[in-house]
């Protein structure tokens, strides 16, 4: 007690001897309670509206805003639930696909020795590596070849005008550019040769196997080592209307979401049992117009189902995103996305199996077809977003113009809808022809063979002026080949440093859209296994 009193008296004496310490102590005490502002002081901050309100007024406003606060929380919760459910559906679908890959792996292990299985694994992996290198080099080679051709043409014209010498005169920089182009050409030919050898050796290995048709088809598609595409969860919700003025014509507008798998992940799953982590999700606005015919082959038969043979020619416009997603154990991580405008020309035949006694009949469609695809790729940055939105605005203007013209001529609502889709498409083609608002990349794809199993639900839901609501789930397996065009204006000259940088990078690795390639089986070549790497 005595010690406490001494300390207390000492502190009090110190404060009394220093008045400013006493004032600071009071100020600190006031700060602990709360800051008081004197609004009579002209230098004090202005009083805001909330501070002027009484407690009753604040309580009333809080009560009025409570429903909006509840709506915000409900929307956030709904978004989280939908995201979780969609991720769960994607994981389930990919899980089923991975299970089928595991069955293929078991079949291969049964018919191959361990060493043969490992050799086949190394062949597929080296095929992927050489194909990726070939894509990079060929893209740069094509671009630099145009520059060299223009350079030689300019120098030839210059010397012809001089009328003195037929030998072109080049500067040191131009000679260096042509020398680098020769080096690039040699690298291009080397990568092409190695890639072709790997494909030929895989052809030889597959031809000696006797697996099931599914396993053999999968091996031939993955053989290319390019980009394997199977939209396992390709879902479409669209409004469909017929065009009464044209028999068999129709138009469709809606949304479509599809999944793309890179071949490297599929091959690693097949040969090394590694899960497929990297996928690409592509949400699109879907605009489609086409014409078709069908024949009911069960018209004179008593069957509980209808079987129809159908043939369709169609044109599709897609506007959306390509989103790379990493499905790691910790969760989903989205990487840098791209804007995509996709144009599809398709011919297909189908066998439709329909239940005729259901109010919302389920259709099973077995489809075989061919198509061509052109994709315009924009980066998700300020420049890319601006160009992409301008492209959409121009197409929207074309759609409105043609739709208004059709409406002025007295066309029906379904015909006006078809004209709007056609107007947007024609405007896009015109913009491409005059090369206005160009993308960073153009990807041309030819798919001579596509196989699909589709499930559709035809509802009785009618939306005024837009048509009948239909749902379609597509399981597609496509084989084809792709050509990429890099049309950016600011690419550097192909110096050795630029070449090495290009070989170490992968500018289009994030797209991996529908890149496949078909080839003819050739058993006459040999590819040394000593040059093959492991998965």
Automatic annotation (TrEMBL):
Residues 1-14 have a biased composition (Polar residues). It comes from the Bacteria. Residues 15-29 have a biased composition (Basic and acidic residues). Residues 1-31 are annotated as: Disordered. Keywords: Coiled coil. Residues 134-161 form a coiled coil. This is Uncharacterized protein.
